[in-house]
Design a protein that fits this description.
Blueprint (H helix, E strand, L loop, with lengths): L2 H4 L22 H4 L1 H5 L10 E7 L6 H13 L4 E7 L2 E2 L16 H6 L12 H10 L6 E2 L2 H23 L17 H22 L3 H29 L6 H21 L4 H9 L26 H4 L3 H26 L9 E7 L2 H11 L8 H5 L3 E4 L5 H5 L3 E6 L5 E8 L3 E2 L6 E2 L13 H8 L10
Parallel strand pairs: 1-2, 3-4, 5-6
Antiparallel strand pairs: 5-8, 7-8, 9-10
Helix pairs in contact: 6-7, 6-9, 7-9, 8-9, 8-10, 9-10, 10-11
Length: about 450
């Protein structure tokens, strides 16, 4: 085209004053200058952008052209941060291609395919959870097996949240037990929760979503379920509805539910909102107004008191968790040997030359607070500290072993049949069963709960 053809009509008589350039214009100039339009509007977002996000092929493309145009005209970059990501490949690590038939359609993952058995719909949250699970800085793989694995993790997480909701059905904020009155096991649980929330916050700030996925999977699905929830079942289901140990446990469960729902919301908004709409109690902010939606609740407020859990207690509870793992090994050996079936049929014996650890364990064996009692943590009927391990004692303890607890001397662990009879209500074994005339099949704890229950009202004919 001639210069006259390129100019607007009113400038064509000045064609001799213009020269037609023959250089190729940077093909990325249009998108590279998009910041000028986005930030040029009155009342629009402020310059520069918090984040530019694109694939690794844009290092010399959009990122570069945006940087050059902005530096040239503004003297600074148009973004505060840049994130580059890899590309999605199939399960075998191959590039997706229609000709190969290995294209994974996000809509099919969410809604399902024509054959619901071969391609079931998993919902948007499962796809989002997969995105959070991968290290997006490199190429990532997706396929049927990968999504099935993620779906299973999602199902376990949902199950954990349902457990929390179900055990808070009769709880309200007025039932909360003050921090100073909580058993040590509950204070330790809140310490762990606060650490997890802080770590997740840091990971969000650094866009390390795969770390959040790992933390949630390990803490919510593994740590909570395998220890705290497992131990808590006894006082949640067996204790009186208004007992201190039950209310203290519910206080901790409520804190976990509210925190977990909020920290997963950016990744799993549908699940988080589902939890929020089914809260059995009302969540209010400082001004007393109720929060109707999870995204109105904001991030959990940091709790310095929970984080101030003494260092020596952190160390001790770390040993308790190790000890519980080793006790379970001896219990499993006793179970294999047909000595016991359920762990509640067992009595655990402990001995250690570590005087400090022995003293603490002895305190827990005789704890007045049932939640911190050692046999409750082991989920056995009894636990006893031995000052000495003599041959006469060993003859009565058929299963035993010595185990190294980190930071301490070795701990000798023995298991025998529990003493006494089985309580038909809590299934714990105790010599107390048979002592109460009105309820001869109950232990002392269950007798106290049952004895104070009001008589049912007589039917009116």
């Amino acid at each position: 085209m001639k210069v006259e053809d390129l100019l607007p009509e009113k400038y064509r008589d000045q064609a001799l004053d213009y020269e037609k350039g023959m250089d190729t214009m940077d093909v990325w100039f249009d998108s590279g200058s998009s910041w000028a339009t986005v930030f040029g509007k009155s009342g629009g977002p402020k310059f520069p952008a918090d984040l530019y996000l694109e694939g690794t092929d844009q290092h010399r493309g959009w990122f570069q052209s945006s940087l050059l145009t902005s530096i040239a005209t503004k003297g600074k970059a148009p973004y505060s941060s840049v994130i580059t990501h890899g590309f999605v490949l199939d399960e075998k690590g191959c590039k997706m291609s229609k000709s190969l038939g290995n294209v994974v359609d996000p809509r099919t993952i969410i809604e399902g395919g024509k054959n619901s058995k071969e391609a079931p719909g998993y919902g948007a949250d499962v796809l989002r959870l997969w995105v959070s699970s991968v290290d997006y800085t490199g190429d990532v793989m997706i396929g049927t097996q990968v999504i099935q694995q993620i779906s299973e993790i999602y199902r376990k997480l949902r199950g954990t949240l349902r457990y929390l909701l179900g055990n808070l059905h009769d709880w309200e904020a007025v039932n909360a037990v003050s921090y100073n009155d909580l058993p040590m096991i509950d204070k330790h649980a809140l310490f762990q929760l606060e650490n997890v929330v802080n770590t997740i916050r840091e990971s969000y700030d650094n866009y390390a979503f795969f770390k959040i996925f790992q933390i949630i999977q390990r803490f919510v699905i593994v740590d909570l379920s395998s220890f705290y929830f497992d131990v808590a079942k006894d006082r949640l289901y067996v204790g009186g509805t208004s007992s201190l140990t039950r209310r203290s446990c519910q206080t901790v469960l409520a804190a976990h539910l509210l925190s977990i729902a909020r920290v997963i919301a950016p990744i799993l908004p549908h699940l988080a909102e589902d939890v929020w709409q089914n809260l059995p109690f009302q969540f209010t902010v400082q001004d007393g107004s109720a929060v109707k939606f999870v995204f109105e609740s904001k991030w959990p407020v940091p709790n310095e008191k929970w984080l101030a859990f003494p260092i020596e207690e952190i160390d001790f509870w770390g040993k308790i968790l190790q000890l519980r793992t080793e006790v379970n090994k001896v219990l499993e050996a006793a179970r294999t040997g047909k000595l016991i079936g359920s762990s509640l049929e067992a009595k655990v014996y402990l001995h250690t030359s570590d005087a400090s650890l022995a003293s603490r364990l002895h305190e827990m064996c005789t704890a007045s607070n049932d939640a911190d009692a050692l046999h409750r943590i082991f989920i056995t009927s009894q636990a006893e500290m031995l000052h000495h391990v003599e041959d006469e004692i060993l003859k009565t303890i058929p299963y035993s072993g010595e185990y190294l607890i980190q930071g301490s001397d070795r701990v000798w662990i023995g298991v025998s049949r529990a003493e006494g009879l089985k309580c038909e209500r809590c299934w714990n074994y105790t010599p107390q069963v048979g002592s109460f005339v009105e309820h001869p099949t109950l232990c002392g704890r269950c007798y106290k709960v049952v004895a104070v229950q009001p008589e049912p009202a007589a039917a009116v004919c």
